[in-house]
Amino acid sequence: MAQILAPSVQWQMRITKNSSYSRDASSMSSKMWSSLFLKQSKKLTARSSAKYRLLAVKSEHGTINRMEDLLNLDVTPYTDKIIAEYIWIGGTGLDVRSKSRTISKPVEHPSELPKWNYDGSSTGQAPGEDSEVIIYPQAIFKDPFRGGNNILVVCDAYTPAGEPIPTNKRHKAAQIFSDPKVVAEVPWFGIEQEYTLLQTDVKWPLGWPVGGYPGPQGPYYCAAGADKSFGRDISDAHYKACLYAGINISGTNGEVMPGQWEFQVGPSVGIEAGDHIWCARYLLERITEQAGVVLTLDPKPIEGDWNGAGCHTNYSTKSTREEGGFEVIKKAILNLSLRHKEHISAYGEGNERRLTGKHETASINTFSWGVANRGCSIRVGRDTEKEGKGYLEDRRPASNMDPYVVTALLAETTLLWEPTLEAEALAAQKLAMKV
């Protein structure tokens, strides 16, 4: 990763195995280390001595950090207890928060875990005089940072009386996905999460000259090379962390704007899609934290002739995947056209800066659909048209959308909501004219 020239200490933990200093250091016993440090404490004035410099943690190839041994310590042989990292969504609706607790033994299902609470006044979700918010465990993933039997727990938030708080979008989504009509259709989602990596101090895209711009878009999409690809190590580390955790990640790629990347999750069924995206976002936040890089899900991080960042959502149902499914897709598109404004209002903050009709987007004010057209609101693939069945891609959601909201709204609009006959006829006429 050519642009991360000075990683944080957390990423400077390893010395190459061929380093002679590494061999010398690893041969030192704990007693030897203690003895050396005691000698140094008696000679505080000799700070510039060669011996003192030897014990400084720098080396030619990296930094010795003795905490690494503890961070990587496998406690499984010594205790049945595990660490559960409870994750929830904060007051902005986009920030992920978490804290840890000890569980007496490994668990397999969220129902085995206790509810917990946090200070909602510190996350913008409750007043100071009544600040307790209760989190309910909803989905479990393996913890790639702690390893062993330790877990990540995706939660949603409620008042002490058991009412979902306003920022709890999972609760309504779960209701929609448990509707018998929706369950029968087995809705599949494939979500393409784009994101941008920023340099820490200047908040400017990774790989860009500070205060300046790289060459125009063109050579960066799915590219390789130190002058074209910035942040690959982060993308790859995130990919493996997701696989370890049990997230249904299906791929990654570098995006059109330099410093921008994408990962895809799915196909996932129903509420699972939102759980997996939120956990994947949490992992990405943790990995960029360790790398000393800032993650942003802003839908248009750089104004001008640069692509924005979306969260394209691929969607299909049992009926669209069966013979005659293309006609079912057309009916779904008709419903989506009638609720365009409602969907746009729920598809992410700042999306108007992205959906301009340029840079592979449709205008935010106009609904459109087409086959293989990335400038439409809804794209249908060539294979779907050819096979007469398949899926549609909603290209309107912004990168900062809430996956619970978007997936539930797609299911509701296409499976539960019925337009009036007059509205349906008028919409069909308009869409026919555009196509």
Automatic annotation (TrEMBL):
EC top class named in words: ligase
Domain GS catalytic: 169-435
Superkingdom, taxonomy of origin: Eukaryota
GO cellular component term of the entry, any: chloroplast
Predominant place of localization: plastid
All residue ranges annotated as the GS beta-grasp domain in the record: 82-162
Keywords: ATP-binding, Chloroplast, Ligase, Nucleotide-binding, Plastid, Transit peptide
Gene Ontology biological-process annotations: glutamine biosynthetic process
EC number: 6.3.1.2
One Pfam family hit: Gln-synt_C
UniProt subcellular location: Plastid, Chloroplast
Catalytic activity: L-glutamate + NH4(+) + ATP = L-glutamine + ADP + phosphate + H(+)
Molecular function terms from GO: ATP binding; glutamine synthetase activity
Family, similarity comment: Belongs to the glutamine synthetase family.
Quaternary assembly: Homooctamer.
The protein's name: Glutamine synthetase
Species annotation: Escallonia rubra
